[in-house]
Amino acid sequence: MKIGILGGSGFIGTRLFEKLLQCGYKPTIFDKVVSKSYPLNTIQVDIRDYDELQKAINDFDCIINLAAEHADNVSPSSLYEEVNVLGATNLCRALHVNSIKKLIFTSSVAVYGLNSEILNESARLSPFNEYGISKLRAEEVYKNWQELDEANNSLTIIRPTVVFGEGNRGNLYNLMNHIYHNKFIMIGKGDNKKSIAYVGNLVDFILHSLACKSGTHIYNYSDEPIMKVSDLVKLIHEAFGIKMRFRFYIPELIALVLGKLLDNISEISGINFPISEVRVKKFCSDTIIMGPDKCLNFRPQFTLDQAILKTIQAEFVPKRINPNG
To answer: Tell me: the pLDDT tens digits for 169-219?
Structure first.
């Protein structure tokens, strides 16, 4: 099977490329940015340019689409529409013209919004921000493509929760970094629960989904157990060998007001602050995502304890880590 990874120069794409190589595939990266790790295996393509996209993916059997605008503060916000939705339209046209029948698309649990329920794939879809809206609209575009040839087209939509791991600079890394530098202050009581996903396990699941046949297949991805934020913070402290020192927290309402104020200042000054209204809402909300159905016979290779320790060992000064953590 000849596999192309669209958006393959990034954090998840690099790990996926490496895993595919290990499994005997010879994948190609398609990205507007040349991969730092695999420049010779990269073809520069912008998903917003249909003509170059259509030519680039000719003669491939499967496309794994990781390409997305996903940050909380993308500017201009129209990029969510251009990359995530119009990009999906371009890709579907290119798939159809090139008679490519297999597509794996990494969507997001953002399509569920700030939903306090326990979420499986049939849960109510109610995105609260432009990113989540664009991902949901992209899913619909891909479903329409699958229906063009229902008997042969294979569409797998994977909705990962917050992904972390070696090389990532996302939300969980920022939490680790604040704890490492003794700058962490809890926002809210920490009783809310968060699902997270280790990149090594997610990449294994993407490979696992290559076996999906024709039809539309939708899977959440998260690793177990689902922990309270306070328990996650405790686990990270223990992995560092750092004693927990915080004894107070900032009430959520006060943090929201501060986040809104900083958002207004950011809009005027162009400065990107680490605290924003959206980030506070996301941090303090429950995100309880049920992982993929066990009937898929997928078992993650790493536990969350192992994954957090592996990430810390790769990203932070080894002497600060408790070897017995």
So the answer is: 888 999 999 899 888 889 888 999 999 999 999 999 999 999 999 999 999
Catalytic hit among 131, 173, 198, 219 = 131
**Whole-number Å distance between alpha carbons of 318 and 311:** 11
Closest CA to 311 of 240, 218, 260: 240
Q: Which of 77, 126, 119 is nearest to 222 (CA)?
A: 119
In the chain, the N- to C-terminal Cα span, in Å, equals: 42
285-288's contacts with Cβ under 8 Å and 24+ in sequence apart are 285/114, 285/116, 285/192, 286/115, 286/116, 286/192, 286/193, 286/194, 287/109, 287/161, 287/162, 287/193, 287/194, 287/195, 288/116, 288/117, 288/118, 288/119, 288/193, 288/195, 288/226
5 strand-pairing partners: 29, 64
Contact between 119 and 105 (Cβ < 8 Å): no
pLDDT 10s digits, 116-171: 678 899 899 999 889 999 999 999 999 999 999 999 999 999 999 999 999 998 88
Half-sphere exposure of 194 (CA within 13 A, CB side): 21
112 is an active site residue: no
The model's pTM is 0.89
CB 69 within 8 A of CB 26: no
Please give the full DSSP string across 227-262, using - where no structure is assigned: EEHHHHHHHHHHHHT-------EE-HHHHHHHHHHH
